[in-house]
Design goal:
It contains eleven helices and 26 strands. It is of the alpha+beta class. It folds into two domains: about 20-170, Sulfite Oxidase, Chain A, domain 2 (Alpha-Beta Complex), CATH 3.90.420; about 180-374, no CATH class. The strands form six sheets. Strands 15-14-18-19-11-26-22-23 form an eight-stranded mixed beta sheet. Strand 1 and strand 2 (about 55) form a beta hairpin. The longest helix has 19 residues, at about 1-20. Residues about 1-25 have low confidence and may be disordered.
Length: about 375
């Protein structure tokens, strides 16, 4: 009888140690809340897999648990700290027979509609936890359940609340940026929406109306934003194609706004954003991001540096057309582009000036730079 029960007994000990972690104490998230309806809550896994999968809170509690002291900075600069416990994302996926290393990205969707793409760099370099208990509470608050993604070392927008779906991507569609627009000139004629932000109503432009001015927007594309301090966030295009705005005036502008983005989870001081083929720049913020350059009495951003920053590839091998708001245009090689400056004027006018000796015509107020050939 002893020989028959020893393997079971040892297995129980090993499982207990895994759940307890290094401290030898049971991690609180391994305990049931005692509420059957709560324990039945689930996260569904969709995307590039043959059949959708799902896992309940109760099933996640049976996995090895980790307790961590969390701390992250909101985009407002405010720090948020709390204790969290739950299984690692890797263990959750392994339980469902999914190899995380086969995927180039994962989209986390909150039950409130909030979305955040987790890139391969974050997946590889961070231990991502799906918290089932926060500050020793077995039942998460309604705006957190069924789980909260904890991404230690990342900014607030990556700490997705109410995780209800994880979308797996075997490939992230590659961008082929062929047009770079100056935001203020691109949106001329679009009526702004007055969006409330920290008690102030400021002008905001709906992304759907901006997209309507692009030549080609792929439904499979990712919408990428980068702030003046270097923070990058990606969204699935279908998540931003309706009721999603860029606030262009007031506090933290330019800043992304949507009903499902909680204050403090916004990307503020946006320097540029892009779809699959178009990028849009805010020259004043680009100066902060890539550095100010001077040419004679002008100051602004180097054209080639700006295009490289928004991921235009093989600049030196391409031909470009620069188009002004008044219809003037200049065709230049990628080599000549390195001799140009997008000057930031005192009244929001963005002119193109060239180094002496180029014999190229300037642009009084730039609308767009587009690739016209190799």
């Amino acid at each position: 009888m002893v020989k028959k029960t020893r393997p079971i007994f040892l297995t129980a000990i090993i499982l207990g140690l895994l759940i307890a972690g290094c401290s030898g104490k049971t991690v609180i998230s391994s305990r049931s809340s005692g509420n059957p309806d709560y324990e039945k809550q689930k996260i569904v896994i969709t995307g590039d897999i043959e059949d959708g999968k799902e896992i309940t809170v109760a099933q996640m509690r049976q996995l090895p648990q980790k307790q961590i002291e969390c701390s992250f900075q909101r985009t407002t600069g405010k720090m948020e700290s709390f204790s969290a416990a739950g299984p690692t994302l890797k263990d959750v996926l392994t339980k469902l027979g999914i190899d995380a290393s086969k995927y180039k990205g994962m989209g986390f969707v909150g039950k409130d509609g909030y979305y955040c793409l987790i890139t391969p760099e974050i997946i590889q370099n961070r231990e991502l936890i799906l918290a089932l208990a926060i500050n020793d509470k077995l039942e998460l608050a309604r705006d957190m359940r069924p789980a909260r993604l904890c991404a230690q070392g990342e900014f607030g927008p990556y700490w997705v609340r109410m995780v209800g779906e994880i979308i797996l991507y075997k490939e992230i569609p590659q961008k082929e940026i062929g047009s770079v627009w100056v935001f203020t000139n691109l949106v001329t004629g679009i009526a702004p929406y007055r969006y409330e932000y920290y008690g102030s109503k400021d002008d905001a432009i709906e992304l759907a109306q901006i997209f309507s001015r692009f030549d080609n927007v792929s439904s499979r594309a990712f919408f990428t934003m980068k702030s003046a301090d270097g923070f990058i966030k990606n969204e699935a295009l279908n998540m931003v194609s309706k009721d999603y705005y860029i606030k262009v005036a007031g506090k933290d502008a330019p800043v992304n706004m949507a009903p499902n983005i909680k204050l403090g989870m916004n990307v503020k001081n946006i320097a540029w954003f892009s779809t699959n083929a178009d990028a849009v720049v805010f020259p004043e913020k680009m100066q902060e991001l890539i550095g100010e350059k001077r040419l004679a009495c002008h100051k602004g951003v180097a054209l080639a540096d700006m295009l490289e920053e928004v991921q235009v590839r093989d600049i030196g091998a391409k031909q470009f057309e620069l188009i002004g708001v008044d219809g003037e245009n200049v065709r230049v090689s990628g080599k000549d582009l390195t001799r140009g400056l997008l000057a930031v004027g005192p009244k929001g006018q963005h002119s193109v000036v060239w180094q002496p000796g180029t014999d190229l015509s300037g642009i009084n107020n730039l609308l767009r730079i587009r690739v016209v050939g190799n």
